[in-house]
Fold these 4 entries.
Entry 1:
Amino acid sequence: MAEFKDRVSPVLGEKVSTAVTVGTFDGLHKGHLSILEELRKAAGKRGLSSMVITFDPHPRQVLQPEARIRLLSSTEAKIKLCAELGIDYVTVLEFNRELSQVTAERFVIDYLIGRYNMKCLVMGYDHAFGRDRQGGEKVLRELVKVYDYDLIKVPPVIIDGRPISSSWVRSRLEDGDLKTVARLLGRFYSFSGTVVAGAGRGKKLGHPTANLEPVEAGGLELFPDGIYAAAVDLEGEMLPGALHHGPRPTFDETESTLELNLFDYSGNLYGRTLEVFVIERIRPILRFDSADALTRQMDADDEEVRRVFEKMKSSTAALRRAV
């Protein structure tokens, strides 16, 4: 298998030819996964290396900054998942105004064929690239006649009568509908956070927590404040827990915090970066009359979280598998 390259355009040997797909792949939902699976199959059938070409920053952040798009996944997360899915190469192109003006034909000539020796192009049913999105299926099939590559169009993945899209995933996540999000992604939504020192209040209340500083800036704005059933994968073992996301109104604290109470775990996590899977929203953030009242509610929250996990397979695979 070809060497996996992290964030940089790979330098391919002269004898390396590729099957390529191009896109932003925000969230890598089931529709994206279908494209990547077709890419792997096409590469294997033709004796090619598989390559994903994506962009950083997201094109809409450059062309429509006023939209303030909230991304479902960081570039690093996309690269990691592509590697786990067996993709040979990932190349990340810097998206800027100059690149946005490259025509579809020039992109095919200079990048796909010139840099990456593309022999097969796999594209989603509605995808287009190049200046003004000129490079749709019609144009790309015309270019096939000139530049002699295979073109494979992948149909959409349909759920509830509509094709899966990143915008649909984003809207359900913003509403706290984690069950639908998991159906669309094919796995539970997750974010990364580094464990940092906190005030220690959770321990005093009988619910010790790991305080998390999110790695992806702005990513937590995607889902609402609340108490969630969550889990962390530590050395291949799924550890369930209760996640607090939001302010602490009982203590008149308005700053949003992330605190994770991992059940039945007493190890030292300070400084570690954890991937946190967000499974189900238990309740919104509430103000309580006293610390004792809050503690009783936290006890009840923990019981509800445990019931959520009793319904799941107690394995790490349950977090990452298609659902």
Note: The longest strand covers residues 237-248.
Entry 2:
Amino acid sequence: MIAHQLDSIGVASCGYLSPVCDPFQEVEETYRLSEKIVGEFIKRNLPIEFITKCKVPKQVIELMAGHPHCFGQFSFVTGREALRKRLMRGGATIDELFASMEQAARQGLPVVMRIDPIIPYLSDGREELLELVKRSMDCGATHIVASVLDVPLKIVKEVFAKFRRFGVGFVYDLTRLYSEVIDGYLHARIDYRKRVFDYLRNLCDREGITFALCMEYELIDGRPVGLNREFMSSTNCEGVNVPIYRRVGERFVPAASCSGACLVCTNPECGIEDLAMGLGKGKMDFTLADYRKWTRLLEAGDDRAKSGKSTEIQGALESQGQGC
């Protein structure tokens, strides 16, 4: 299925395993589906990333480490193992997760550490956050991503009920703190979130690594506005710039001199203006249909898709294709 989808498009961005379901749960040991998906991307010279709270199989790291634009994200909810066990089922221990991160970094795979989510009054202590950042750097991380817990409005009661194990007073404090509704989610007050993010941004600046937020917003005139404009020190959320890829023969190559910094891009050399967030009219969510649409436009020579750069792009593609 993945192979068929990849072969149906002529333009692609970085693959993503997986924002919905951890790709390296125990079932991976039996079926090795995530490893096979990674293999299909690498076979076509396409980059892919993962996000996980589990140990990453050695074979997956070796596959991805050989590609210049693959990277891995390791997600932590706390730096305390006893608390981690109370908060989540399954996953690797904190020591195992850091060991997996270090193994990936030693193989040459860029690694990102996520503190995601930070739970107010439970895992937001400055000493704990400091220790997580420093230990991740010791294990090879060069970028930190953070977010504070948000809760879908439909399940607020259920989520807060589960927190009763930490005490009635804790739940009472959360109920007072969580008062902002943005796009169907209940968020902690903006002043609290900004204090946490300000501390982390300053910490990362001091330690010499980059920082960004994940899906964090504030309401301005009733409209959600991303907080990364205030706190991000990298050129994209994930801290690793990955260019858009275009097909040359049976394989893909980077589109011209594209750096992959879509959030600040105002000159889309990939030929796809929808990706150029710096123009103020790009969009964040993309589907397979979008990539097929761009493939058709680019193959047909549509001037809107090529943005007047067809000669430059084609020359760069042919040059890079010879070295694949």
Note: Residues 53 and 151 are 20 Å apart (CA to CA).
Entry 3:
Amino acid sequence: MTYFIITFGCQMNKSDSERIASVLKKIGYKPASKIDEADLIVVNICSVRQSAVDRVHGLIPKLQRIKTRNSKLKIILTGCILKKDLEKFRNYFNYVLSIKSLDYWKDFLRKENYFYYPDPRNLEFSKKFNTNYLKIKSEYANNFSAFIPISIGCDNFCTYCVVPYTKGPLIHRDHKKILKEAQKVIKNGFKEIWLLGQNVNSYHSPTNSSINFPKLLKMVNAIPGNFWIRFTSSHPKDFSNELIKVMADCEKVTEYLNLPVQTGDNKILKKMNRPYTVSQYKNLVKKIRKKIPDISLSTDVIVGFPGETKKQFQNTVNLFKEIKFDMAYIAQYSPRPETVAEKMKDNISPEEKEKRAKILTEVLKKTALENNKKYIGKIARILVDKAQNGFLIGRTRSYKTIKFKGNKDLVGKFTKVKITDALSWGLKGE
């Protein structure tokens, strides 16, 4: 029996897929190299943006064609799924299963068809299943970079976001189990750890309330070995001075930070239920850059939020010009079921949203290129991700993508590269 996993979403979804692979391996499945060679296809979906849901809709005809050629094929839908989408999808899949119930999939898959997707906001369900779910060992996608979840769920309820409704309430993982997993992957030669959470810097250990995210970072940093530490995603409201100091002091914590701003206008921030002002965000960035001058800063932003005027959008443009981000993930607002913003009038046309996204992208291209040019002539330590079309692709400590010629045996290893050229979205070197 063979399986094939399709993942739509963030690093947390990718981490979930690694745990799915581990469970399927225990059941007796082996990975298929191609989707049409699989006996079991798993679609791990993210509902945060409508575009990801649309991609699943677009995938269904292909899955049905494969099924006509293989009558024994079974298809699972899992991940972050809204009730509204569940009703649309359940007729196209043999199984619709909560990712939190992963420890029980072995029993579910014995049935011909099965639907098991309790309300993720049910605290009793979340606590019971999270405990088992996080115990599952990941079948890591490679042997050099490991995703390690430290918390699941979210209680922030930003008005545009479905995560609290699909992932459930915020539940923290025991710090001892996080450290044990980190120690194990480092012992096995991994070069990079990603600490994951929907709001990673709100972390507090459930078994020792004095251990917050900065203290956890220090503990991971103290593990002997030659490796880097990264984390995502952080929230400005929980970004303490203690965390900034720990990032600056811990040599294994890399100089990269994703700090979502979402908009550059205070009124829109309030409508989004983001509990900070633009001024507070800018002051936070100033403090971070003072302590960590080489920090590479990325952000998340939404254009075309309900009621966003041209002047309010211009405030976001001005913020981009002032902060000079290295990277930004620019989303065009789409109403999501069950959120507060869904009840607001979506009065920005798709054409205007597209226009605003392009304007921000052009600003970003200029600032990113300006930032990247500072690396030319420097020698950087690189973790090589892959070999592609005769080149090696890797990342610097500051999460800059770099392309260079080299031996494919370097994949998964550290190497030093001299940076020879800069583009908006990456570097070239030798």
Note: The chain is about 35% helix and 20% strand.
Entry 4:
Amino acid sequence: MSTSEGPAAAVRAQARVAEAARGRPSLPHEPLIRIRPEQKWLGVRPREVWAYRELLYLLMWRDLKARYKQTALGAAWVVLQPVLSTLIFTVFMGTFIRVPSDGVPYPVFAYAGLLPWAFLSNSVLSGSHSIVASAHVINKVYFPRLLIPVSMVGVRLIDFVIASAVLIVLMAYYGIALTPGILLAPLLIAEVAALAVSLSILTSAVNARYRDTGTALPVLLQLWMFASPVIYPSTVVPARWRWAYDLNPLAGIIEGLRACLFGRPLDWRAVALSAALTLALLLCSVYVFRRMEEDFADMV
């Protein structure tokens, strides 16, 4: 730390001495020491994140216990949410409106789309409030703040795995056999998890500064659901608009998962474009988060 010489510095020094003599020590206008992580590529050090892996586990376990504490059904809500949504959309979209489902029974078709969507939307909603909700921890000790929104996604990923058992039961009930394409499903699940991490990181940082983000986010997510092939196939989109529709990274992920599950040809162009957009969003989100991370303690 360096000191500046001159009349102004002398006046400030005399003022501090005078206030200290009166028993009221003055504080500097700027912090003398600022604790911050070492600035590497995008401010992310994989070795540091790995060193705090036990903290990530504890954050996930804390959220799991808090979410199911004093609930009558407990973890059953993980399955009930997509099941009830599938039932509602099956009645109105599959029976009354008769939305096409590409030759697949509509309950299975809808559940296969609602499952990744529920994982993504729940991850973003919980992740957006994670920094603000962890203010008591952020103000006390340093650790990679990225672990907070990432832990929210990890919890929802556990919910996704549990709810996937219902999809297997539905496929068996309707006589849909698994094909070798199912081996590509983990890659698409990893892609939707990366998309969830990207949006959770970005919205958690923005919500820490602008709290109305949490109010607008549910509406934006609802619009995004209807702009994605969650309850309808992408084949209903006119061909002249497919180029714009494929810019939605969720479109390639959901259609790719359905192709893996139901043995249909995989649209590699849409999947590759979705992966590229997800990677770009992840890099951008991490950059924004690390730029704002230094001020989290003051903002929350």
Note: The chain has one domain: 38-299.
